[in-house]
Design brief:
Layout lengths: L3 H16 L3 H12 L2 H18 L8 H26 L1 H9 L8 H20 L2 H12 L4 H8 L3 H21 L10
Helix pairs in contact: 2-3, 2-4, 3-4, 6-9, 7-8, 7-9, 8-9
């Protein structure tokens, strides 16, 4: 029978070797995703817990890409968990939307923002993984083209091409959904 302390020690060693060096990157990416320091810390913590639980199955190749994938999935789960709460209490949701926010946004802007976010999310979901991963890494996580190229193991030119094509598809989807950019004189 295998010694459980040996397995635990191996997991801790792998965690120290593969995960700990990426903590700064994880936090930076989490900040760019959540735009909130507290939410970013929570997301990093959730990512670290998931990584620790899965470290024995990790092959050691491309730890940053592995961790960012875990983070992306954790964030998607966090977003999904928040939405049903809005639907359970429609009166509270409508009151929140009807109020003018601190930054002066009116009801139309809030509703359009939510509509825009939903359309973007749908469009992202419809992209193939190779385009979605580039959007996630560059546009959402804020990594440079070179960092994304290193993670995905493709040339920088491929990152630029995929990013261009993915953004074009998203713009097309937004136009089809009736969401168009504002004119600069508005």
């Amino acid at each position: 029978m295998p010694d459980p302390t040996t397995s635990e020690s191996t997991a801790e060693d792998a965690f120290s070797r593969y995960v700990t060096p990426e903590l700064d990157v994880l936090y930076r990416v989490a900040r760019s995703i959540t735009r909130n320091p507290t939410d970013a810390e929570d997301l990093v913590q959730d990512t670290l817990i998931r990584a620790y639980k899965a470290i024995e199955r990790f092959d050691g190749r491309y730890p940053r890409a592995w961790l960012l994938t875990i983070m992306r999935n954790a964030q998607m789960n966090r977003v999904r968990r928040k939405r049903p709460e809005l639907l359970r209490d429609p009166d509270r949701t409508m009151q929140r939307i009807a109020d003018t926010s601190e930054d002066g946004q009116g009801v139309e802007n809030i509703v359009m923002h939510d509509e825009f976010d939903a359309a973007i999310e749908t469009s992202l979901d419809n992209l193939s993984e190779r385009f979605r991963s580039v959007i996630d890494l560059v546009d959402i996580s804020g990594l440079s083209y070179q960092e994304a190229a290193d993670i995905l193991e493709v040339p920088v030119g491929t990152i630029m091409s995929r990013l261009h094509r993915a953004r074009k598809r998203i713009r097309t989807d937004l136009k089809a959904a009736g969401i168009t950019p504002r004119k600069s004189n508005e």
